[in-house]
Amino acid sequence: MIKNIFLIFVTTLILAYLSFAVYYSNLYMERTSMCKDIRVNIADAAERQYLNEKDILYSISKAGLSPVGKDLSFVSMAALENIITENRLIKQADCYKAVNRTVQINVYQRKPVLRIFSAKESYYIDSDGEKMSIPENFSAYVPVANGFIEEEYAQKQLYEFAMFLQVDKFWNSQIKQIYIAQNGDIELTPVVGNHIIILGKIDNYKEKLNKLRLFYDKGLSKVGWNRYSVINLKYKNQVVCTM
């Protein structure tokens, strides 16, 4: 009889202790706002995806900044954003404390507008004119520029030219390659036609291409797109063609 009472007492004591431990643990979690999860959203993944959630989580973990299991009061969202955007494929990262003690991360990737092949390296120029590394498993359908290209020239003059091509529907679909000669002249390779377009210096490129567009409409449409091998736009108010 006494033995049974003792067992009941011990069992009750153990259950009471476990209940108290669970309650205290939950209370501690609530009071300290301890992070229990981290969620990553690649906001523009439908358009292009150089990275995935695992890549983002790995970079955070490698830097020792994983918030999971830490008091959110002491987790710096700015530090998380800085370590994520160290990756040259990422344009922006927004981190914030969400419901249920989670950290939400929204990642925005860079958008390439031009592929550069210089004597030193290969890279993209993005829509902000910034140098962008080449993703391992992604190839963007953008114009290619090669030849004698300095990085500053690529990020300024060629970037401006690439943005013009992207906005203009006709030239965006017509120009596939840009070659910069040693003297600074630009040669364009079109998608339609077997000719090379000599643009000359990049100055006044809009005026030159408008002149070429007019020649396309009134000249090549009649004689054929493959009649000439070279169309030279270097000279003011002239379109010089070589067969």
Map the helices and strands.
Layout: H1 2-32, E1 37-42, H2 53-62, H3 77-84, E2 90-98, E3 102-109, E4 112-117, E5 122-126, E6 131-132, E7 144-147, H4 151-167, H5 169-174, E8 175-180, E9 186-190, E10 196-200, H6 205-223, E11 230-232, E12 240-242
Folded structure, characterized:
This protein is elongated. It contains 6 helices and 12 strands. About 5% of the residues have low confidence. It folds into 2 domains: 73 residues, Ubiquitin-like (UB roll) (Roll); 131 residues, Cell division protein FtsQ/DivIB (Rossmann fold). Helix content is 37%, strand content 26%. The chain is α/β, with parallel strands linked by helices and 243 residues long. The strands form 2 sheets. Strands 6-5-4-7-8-9-10-11-12 form a 9-stranded mixed sheet.
Q: Rg, please?
A: 30 Å
Q: What fraction strand?
A: 25-35%
Q: Tell me the domain tally.
A: 2
Order of helices and strands: HEHHEEEEEEHHEEEHEE
- Strands, count: 12
Provide a compact summary of the structure.
With about 240 residues, the chain is α/β, with parallel strands linked by helices. It folds into two domains: about 35-110, membrane protein fhac (Ubiquitin-like (UB roll), Roll); about 110-240, 3-Layer(aba) Sandwich (Rossmann fold).
